[in-house]
Design goal:
Length: about 575
Amino acid sequence: MRKLLSYLKPYRRDCLLGPLLKLAEASLELFVPMIVAAVIDRGIGRGDRGYIVNMSLLLVGLGLLGLGFSVSAQFFSARAAVGFVTRLRHGLYAHIQRFPDSTLDRIGIPTLITRMSSDMNQVQTGLNLTLRLLLRSPFVVFGAMIMAFTIDTRAALWFVAAIPALALVVFGVMLATIPMYRKVQACLDQVLGTTRENLNGVRVLRAFRREEQECRIFSGQNAALTAMQQRVGRVSALMNPVTYVVVNLAVVCLIHTGALRVQAGLLTQGAVIALYNYMSQILVELIKLANLIINITKSLACGKRIQSILEISDEERADESLPGGDPNVRVEFDGVSLRYPGSAGNALAGISLRAMPGQLIGVIGGTGSGKTSLVQLIPRFYEATGGRVLVNGRDVRAMEPNVLRAKIGVVPQKAVLFQGSIRDNLRWGNENASDKALMEAVQSAQAAEVVTAKGGLDGRIEQFGRNLSGGQRQRLTIARALVRKPEILILDDSASALDFATDAALRKALRALPYRPTIFLVSQRTAAVQDADQILVLDEGRAVGCGNHGSLLRDCPVYREIYDSQFRKEAAE
């Protein structure tokens, strides 16, 4: 847990003051039964009203002082816990942002969200409770027993018998329920997973009329969760009645012993009341301690899960020792291969290609041929497992990721927009871009009518662009990439929702860009790539053709098959 504790260093003073103030409050609490005993013996017993008033004022003073200690302890503990988790969350988020896509795929986005949210909250709660109660509860338990011995040794022996019995019950129930709580959490995760899948795919469920089957699956999982919660609830419910039986038996014995000693003149009535109060304090603190240990156990488990993410290397450090290539070539694939972690075979094998500044490179192939995998190697979203990928003559592994990606504009297959204005979304490409530069990018992306229909650059976009059509989302994401004026523009099947006329106008506008980017156009339509300077044809991760449209129709069977499937046979002839 050292990585996590390093985030706690700025709050060392708070971590010290919180427990100390709680111990001060507990010390005052231990004096209360003694004062009550004095009120009974001296004030009530002798009819001394002045003494009663003075002792009552002392109790009020101790109460106010204890309240001050308690509030101060809560303040320092909360500040330490909240500050620690805030710094930890920032550190974890920054660490996750440096992960390559392969690491994100391996861990899973839902897992990372859980680490950032519920696990963090559990760690915060556990740290807060630890600072306030971990020292206080044992201090009160042993302090109450010591105070009991100062009152009467023989009567205090019942404390020696009661405390182990109470501890056995409390910690026995705790040890029995901790593994059961883990099973409850596993069942809950299963229910939440099914719920998330059903809500995300509700339209698919309706289309295939699977509502009843999914309801039965959900009901079964929910019933299993309910049964597990009832089981752990029954065991947990034993704690209060059993502890109260033990305490009440101890109280009966204590009062019996006290009564005999009062009758013999060896003990006062107030002392018996004080002993009873100390027994009650022990009961309350033991139950608090048991609940605290359960919370600490959960927090430690969550902390270990968070630390496991922090211990994952970001794997994106630059290696300046790697040899370079021709600086006049904008992008070069030199015998590139790629194998995803856990995969049985290569997704790409032996790909070689050189793209010059201003060229349009078409990438085409069937589904699963490796088109997206290839272009994702350029911004180093994935690391090539063989060969080299070079940008401007430098191996991408020798470049800092931020420096490399500043040269690249990427439009992914799935158009992703964020809640906010059109201007805010476009400025992801360049946060300092003027409205004029934004509109130039919008016009090049054939999205001017979209912006006009939404009321200009201040038009609102809902989360994920739900208030836009698929084609409108794609055009705005292309405009967002163009705002950067990138040296390399990657269009990963990002015009699939556009009609042929808009698609043709977009390609013409991209060709006319004054800063002449090298464009990689991934598509499954031969009409979209037939005007490219080079067309790379992929089949099962291998390059089976590279050339212009005419040469590929003549020499590449795979390209000719794709073309024939989209156009009439006569057109090919």
